[in-house]
Amino acid sequence: MRMSRFALLAVMGLLWAAQPAMAAPDDNAQRLEKARALIETTGMATISQQIMDGLMGQVEKMALAQNPGREKDIHTLVQDHIRPALKNGLPELMQGMEALYASNFTVDEMDQIITFYRTPVGRKSLQQMPQIMQQSMALGQAWASKIMAQAGADFTAAAKQRGLKL
Questions:
Q1: What is the mean pLDDT of residues 122-151?
Q2: Cα separation of 129 and 133, whole Å?
Q3: Which pLDDT value is given to residue 119?
Q4: Do residues 107 and 27 lie in contact, with contact meaning Cβ atoms separated by under 8 Å?
Q5: Under a CB-based contact definition with an 8 Å cutoff, are residues 11 and 44 in contact?
Q6: More confident site: 164 or 166
Q7: Residue 55 in contact with residue 86, Cβ under 8 Å?
């Protein structure tokens, strides 16, 4: 679940980092249609479902922390209230993703991306990306912990020397 959320964030980050392509008003429908095909090819709906499952798990975990021993009640409430809300909101998310792709890529570029993801290496990259993202996050967290342990100690010492309170 965590890895899927990061996969979605990585895709969104790539889209936001790309320079927006200027779309003529008459090709917007074609761009949106191609964006839908790209979203389908990349399995974004499946990733979004995994994210929704992760969100529901987080809600359950937080509620259980306040209500130990009430797992069944909490699970039922999440299934009855959170799941339908997320499911009903999914089309809005997909439309937003379509708009992001359509505003950042030309039809030709989306064709090329779709073509890539339909190749063996493209399919492999889609299959491996969640694992790679999970491993990257673990690597990044370990690196940040190591760096921040030293930097934090240096920062605290320097702040105290300057009379700052932390």
A1: 90
A2: 6
A3: 96
A4: yes
A5: yes
A6: 164
A7: yes
Question: How far apart are the C-alpha atoms of 51 and 146, rounded to whole Å?
Answer: 29
- For residue 45, the model assigns a pLDDT of 81
* Contact present, 39 and 12 (Cβ < 8 Å): no
Residue 17's CB is within 10 A of a number of other CB atoms, namely: 8
Contact 38, 101 (CB under 8 A): yes
Tokens of residue 19, six digits: 């320079």
Least confident interval from 33-37, 73-77, 108-112, 129-133: 129-133
Query: Which has the higher per-residue pLDDT, 25 or 145?
Result: 145
For residues 10 and 80, give the distance between their C-alpha atoms in angstroms, rounded to a whole number. 30
pTM of the model: 0.63
The string over 58-86, giving b where at least 16 C-beta atoms fall within 10 Å of a residue's C-beta and e elsewhere, is: ebbeebeeeeeeeeeebeeebeeebeeeb
